[in-house]
Write a structure and sequence with these properties.
Layout lengths: L1 E5 L20 H23 L9 H27 L3 H40 L4 H12 L3 H16 L3 H5 L3 H8 L1 H16 L1 H4 L2 H32 L2 E10 L2 E7 L13 E6 L9 E4 L8 E7 L3 H4 L9 E8 L11 E7 L3 H10 L5 E8 L8 H11 L2 E6 L19 H8 L6 E6 L2 H13 L7 E3 L5
Parallel strand pairs: 8-9, 8-11, 9-10, 11-12
Antiparallel strand pairs: 1-10, 2-3, 2-7, 3-6, 4-5, 4-7
Length: 470
């Protein structure tokens, strides 16, 4: 392991303070989770009041009633998932990208499994009370029941989304393709609505039930339209953003600076990310998430991205003056979530970009250590900037070089294989438990270093991680 230590320099006069934002407290996440559980309890209560328990007396009635309940819970979870996809700023910043992505995935797969259970139980229940047999019942349900053909199409759309969300399938898809397919989740939710309203007794059993379900759909639709469509367009039309410059930060890496009057109205912190769209031709409809690589100064936004797909490869060809649409800012990977006076920033590869922005925004004189893990020093993205910034802000920069350990899951290079992961962390920062720790990099590397930090005694609320895998 090669450690290159750039010693801290004396603090210098700070430039103009970066724009500060109000970070939603963590209890917002707990409150929203409670609300989501309340929705599921409400769904179950409406099923009970609609006679769900009374129908359990016969085989056909029991199967049908269980099918109704699983379908209702599946629908509610699907709407919750759509709401989580809506990028509502307060929820997104309260949960953070990492927790939100895990919750979105868990809710999505649970909803899909309940949907499959709904199809099986409803079909078996109807077949048990019909003389048409199983296949005759299936044909009758699909062809003769109102809205069922649309529901079948919606189910097919959801199947496509779920299949492409399996990790092995996602690994074989480009981000742009996966993003396009994932939008079919909205289509699936929309196509299921007519079936539920026309044939779903639980939707129409009472005014309360009708108001409840229409209210859920209305809230989810309003959130998607407001925060995924209207807000970005309004910001762009009110105060257009444009590309100011594009620079090659390293081979296969571009730094893009965006400016315009619209930057002034953004409540953003260094380290947060936006979904970016560049109106320069084909492909502009697909947004790509990139973190800021410089602290916001109220005039410009800057990000640095590696060319890993069609969307990011286009960045090198952007021309100054190109119009830009942004959604955000998103994420909790910024200094505002910290609770300690000391900070440890850990990054691998291109993951150093949000860390650079956090370092730049932290007050001069803050006890900061930035660890950058790279294979070779020549591959250290923004290396010169990091060294100059660390010196100017009195921070310590540690560059760790070398190919990875192959004998175990580790965040260390092979040269440091004789150390445990937590020993290496404690050698760099013996006071680890007194620091806020921010981590960004490749998923497996982040998992390894996060686990090491926890084993070394870091409290969970001082660990801040954000993943950008899709």
């Amino acid at each position: 392991m090669t450690l290159i230590l750039d010693p801290p320099a004396a603090p210098t006069q700070a430039r103009a303070a970066a724009q500060r934002s109000t970070t939603p407290p963590r209890w917002w996440r707990d409150a929203s989770a409670t609300l989501f559980w309340a929705v599921l309890v409400g769904v179950t209560g409406l099923w009970v009041s609609g006679g769900g328990i009374q129908e359990l007396g016969t085989l056909g009635g029991a199967l049908t009633s269980i099918g109704r309940l699983t379908g209702l819970l599946s629908s509610a979870l699907l709407l919750i998932q759509v709401f989580l996809m809506a990028r509502v700023p307060w929820f997104e910043q309260a949960w953070g990208q990492d927790d939100l992505a895990r919750t979105h995935r868990l809710v999505g797969f649970t909803s899909f499994n309940l949907l499959l259970a709904h199809l099986v139980f409803i079909t078996l229940g109807y077949a048990a009370e019909s003389s048409a047999g199983l296949w005759g019942t299936i044909v009758d349900l699909v062809v003769n029941y109102p809205g069922m053909l649309l529901a079948v199409a919606g189910t097919a759309a959801l199947v496509m989304v779920v299949v492409t969300s399996i990790r092995k399938a996602r690994a074989r898809l480009r981000y742009e393709s996966w993003h396009l397919i994932h939008l079919y989740g909205y289509l699936g939710a929309g196509l299921a609505l007519p079936h539920q309203l026309w044939t779903g007794a639980d939707f129409l059993s009472s005014r309360v039930a009708t108001a409840f379900w229409w209210g859920l759909y209305a809230v989810c639709l309003a959130a998607v339209v407001a925060f995924r469509v209207v807000l970005p367009l309004w910001r762009s039309l009110r105060a257009p953003l444009r590309v100011v410059s594009v620079e090659a930060a390293a081979p296969g890496v571009s730094t893009v600076t965006v400016g315009g009057r619209g930057v002034e109205g953004l409540d953003v912190r260094g380290g947060q990310f936006f979904n970016w769209r560049f109106l320069d031709g084909p492909g502009w409809t697909r947004a790509n998430p990139y973190s800021l690589s410089a602290a916001p100064d109220g005039r410009t936004l800057r990000f640095t991205a590696a060319h890993v797909g069609d969307g990011s490869a286009r960045l090198a060809g952007l021309r100054p003056g190109t119009r830009v649409l942004v959604e955000g800012p998103y994420g909790r990977l910024h200094a505002g979530v910290g609770t300690r006076s000391k900070v440890l920033l850990l990054a691998s590869g291109i993951g150093v970009t949000p860390m650079r922005a956090i370092l730049e925004e932290l007050p001069i004189g803050t006890d900061v250590t930035l660890v950058h893990r790279v294979r070779r020093r020549s591959e250290a993205v923004l290396g010169d900037e990091l060294r100059a910034l660390a010196a100017a802000r009195g921070a310590r920069l540690v560059t760790i070089e070398g190919t990875r350990v192959t004998t175990r899951s580790s965040w260390l290079p092979a040269q440091a294989g004789h150390l445990t992961d937590e020993q290496a962390l404690l050698e760099i920062t013996p006071d680890l438990a007194e620091r806020d720790v921010f981590i960004c990099g490749a998923p497996a590397w982040m998992d390894a270093v996060s686990a090491a930090a926890r084993r070394a005694g870091l409290p969970a609320d001082q660990l801040h991680v954000e993943r950008f895998t899709y």
